[in-house]
Design brief:
Blueprint lengths: L2 H10 L2 E5 L6 H16 L3 E5 L17 E2 L9 E5 L12 H4 L2 E6 L10 E4 L6 H11 L6 H14 L10 H12 L4 H9 L4 H11 L3 E3 L4 E7 H7 L9 H4 L8 E7 L4 E7 L5 H6 L5 E2 L3 E6 L3 H15 L1
Parallel strand pairs: 1-2, 1-4, 2-3, 4-5, 5-6, 8-9
Antiparallel strand pairs: 7-8, 9-10, 10-12, 11-12
The chain binds guanosine-5'-monophosphate and manganese (II) ion.
Length: 316
């Protein structure tokens, strides 16, 4: 049982830096907020620092103001890394300048076990699920806003309960979070159904790049990063677009390709026949789950796209 070890470590120390992967998503955000609440509730000092800013659509969450992109100048007893398979995905470096002790809590199967304490549940649907289990083990009674954070974490990593990682356990967990005060309709609306007109315009531009390859088994969409700024949209407005790439009949693998002059990032999706986690992991720094994964190639867009198409075609 790993919980007593986590308990001991959290009890022993007094200052904690909480961080997660670049391109913040609902699970990493909700998990960081739940951890922030827990640590401060037991009298610890906690700071939340991430390379990237909080997407505006998550601004409704209580304590959203604790997210900072400014690297703290001081050291912490413990660095708590949540929902992040590898330190390189944090997007910031010299971790040892910030703390000597890392606690790594995650659910990615390619987690590099980089912590002094690693709590990695590879079959977990979300990091929020792991924290829910920890709070249940502690028999904690927590306020509605913490239930809301955990619900948002689990809802987003299950694609609003439509991915195959949605189980009875997950649904019962989320039912309990609703009983504890999470407002499921409000959270869905804020996360999935509230866009600025500029955000919708961005999506329409991404849709207009829709293309099919390999007898319709591969689908792609594209987004130059510069488009976000040009349209006055935000990065978060493109979130979820990758999921549309596998919705076409006959499509096995989908990809949303985001790029600038220097690098090309792939958000990969699979219907099941191809393990896109393996494809992503074959590129340095890449990884993820079998049905949703990502990687970055440090080569220009056209070259990178041709290379990825060849890799996927080989896998099909
Ligand atoms: P998304 O396409 O939604 O950004 O990410 C899908 C999944 O792949 C998530 O679990 C995410 O953590 C993982 N992922 C996305 N990009 C990368 C990457 O560059 N490297 C690694 N290791 N995982 C990634
Ligand atoms: Mn996650």
């Amino acid at each position: 049982m790993i919980w007593p070890e986590l308990d001991a470590l959290l009890e022993k120390h007094s200052s904690f830096l909480i961080s997660s992967h670049r391109g913040l998503d609902g699970d990493c955000i909700g998990s960081q907020l739940a951890m922030y609440w827990y640590l401060t509730s037991i009298g610890k000092r906690a700071v939340v620092y991430n390379h990237d800013p909080l997407p505006t659509k998550f601004g409704f969450l209580t304590n959203a103001g604790v997210f900072s992109t400014e690297r703290p100048g001081d050291r912490f007893d413990v660095l708590v890394v949540l929902d992040c398979s590898n330190p390189s995905r944090l997007g910031w470096e010299r971790l040892s300048d910030m703390s000597d002790t890392i606690v790594n809590i995650d659910h990615h199967r390619d987690n590099a076990l980089f912590g002094a304490l690693n709590i990695v549940k590879k079959d977990g649907a979300a990091t929020g699920q792991i924290l829910y289990d920890y709070f249940a083990y502690k028999k904690l009674s927590y306020p509605p806003h913490v239930a809301e954070s955990l619900y948002a974490a689990i809802m987003t990593d299950t694609g609003a309960f439509r991915f195959s990682n949605t189980s009875g356990v997950i649904l019962r967990m989320c039912a309990d979070l609703c009983d504890r005060g999470a407002d499921s309709a409000l959270i869905y609306d804020k996360v999935y159904a509230s866009f600025s007109s500029n955000g919708l315009l961005l999506q329409s531009k991404i849709w207009s790049t829709l293309a099919f390859y390999h007898n319709g088994e591969i689908c792609s969409m594209e987004m130059p990063y510069a488009l976000i700024k040009d349209l006055g949209a935000t990065y978060g407005d493109s979130e979820g677009m990758a999921d549309f790439t596998i919705m076409g009949g006959g499509v096995e693998v989908g990809m949303l390709i985001k790029y600038n002059d220097k690098e090309t990032h792939f958000s990969l999706r699979s219907k099941g026949r191809v393990d896109v986690g393996k494809i992503a992991a074959s590129i340095e720094g890449g990884g993820g789950h079998s049905s949703a994964a990502g990687c970055t190639m440090t080569i220009p867009f056209a070259e990178a796209k041709a290379k990825m198409l060849a890799i996927i075609e080989k896998a099909l």
